[in-house]
Amino acid sequence: MSASILRTIACRAVSACGILVACSPMPSDVLPDTVEVRVVNPIAWPDGKLLIVSGGFVGRTDVPEVRLDTLRLAVARVDDSTMSADLPDTSGSFALRLLYRGRQRVGSVTLVGFAGHTETIALTGWPHPEAPGSPIVIAATESSLVRLDLRTGAAANLGIGHSGSCAISPGPSYRDSVIVAQALAGTTCESPMGWRVEPSAALVDSFALYPYPADRLWAELAPGIWLRTAHHDLTIYTDGQVTLFEQLEEGERVILSPDRSRAVVLTTNAQNQVPMLLTAAGTVAFRLPLLSTEAVAFAPGGDTIFAAGYTAFTIGQPERLMAVSAATGAVLMQRDDALPQLWDLVLDPDAPWVYGVGAEPADASGPYWQPVILVFDRHTLQPLGRIRPPPTAACVSGLCGQVGMAIDAGARRAYAFDVEGWGSSFFNTPTAIFSFELVPAAQPAEILTP
Q1: What residues contact residue 55 under an 8 Å CB cut-off, 6+ apart?
Q2: How far apart are CA 160 and CA 63, in angstroms?
Q3: Distance between CA 367 and CA 16 in Å, rounded?
Q4: In the prediction, which pLDDT does 82 show?
Q5: How confident is the model at residue 125 (pLDDT cuts 50, 70, 90)?
């Protein structure tokens, strides 16, 4: 007979005699100390998965007991040698204990999380990153542009006039290191101007034919091609003539592809679905299958567009996250299960992850809100985890009107910031910056010890 059957018979026989004994595994069924058990990701995302690999799992159907400190985790088998354990939605360092086949292995696990909270100057509209996802951004105050370092909150005035009364946000340009601003002279808006910000501020172009407020923003798509968004519409001018006009609500940001050949306008409502523009011609290449785009990011190679928005405006309609071919508009993958509204998307340059930032109540009992960062697998859009501040760290106004995000890949830090100056309700309210730890792009496995 096998050892397991003999042990079962022995335990039943002793129990029948009324004798209490510990029916522990027979020696041949015990996990040998020489069999390695390792944790693939000892630094992990909260609300994510812990992956544990061992040859001792092979050929069996049972799963180990896994605890973080005293919390027992739900465990499932991934394949013959791999188990996954559901991690809690919290952060910190924890003792890890694994019980399997009569033996214990121990180690430690760190769940990344909140790293700090500071405030900086009041911003109007959305800042423009110097590079996609960069923590160095060009931002607007009520009268000028500043270079803002989200890592420290330090802001340096660039000496470039810009007014939120003319264009809420500064806009991008097809040129290197150029930002589009619109200043206020007395009570009149000046023409939109393209300013080079490196190595020092210098005017490079302007749209002199249109010295009127954009309301939302101006962008320079190509030589002689300017884009303007207002409260209710999108207009493209080619050599001073209107070549595209359509209804589009609250177009407060324009995202250019890495080679600046394509552009997507972020909007709360595009009646004809969201246009994907070819910048050289100022024309619509195709439309994203969304009625709004609250967040957009291009893959580093520019071949894929990641977008979050709504497909319908009905009560209970979840937001949809999708990846679309930038060449054809074909939907490559999508998900829409229980996502909060995402305000920004950033791709990790060193790991296959997409970060989305939204806002949620700081706790169940209070009215205050705070940013939350969701992590997705770039190749599948499957959720990998989430990181959030403690309940005591909330946005300055308590509402987190809109929330942007940037990352410092080298330092493995993420920065979420609330955009409070976008409407008169939060006029001159300081901007809150929340910093978070990120999981390393690569890390060694931890071998658990007996």
Answers
A1: 35, 36, 81
A2: 63
A3: 61
A4: 97
A5: confident
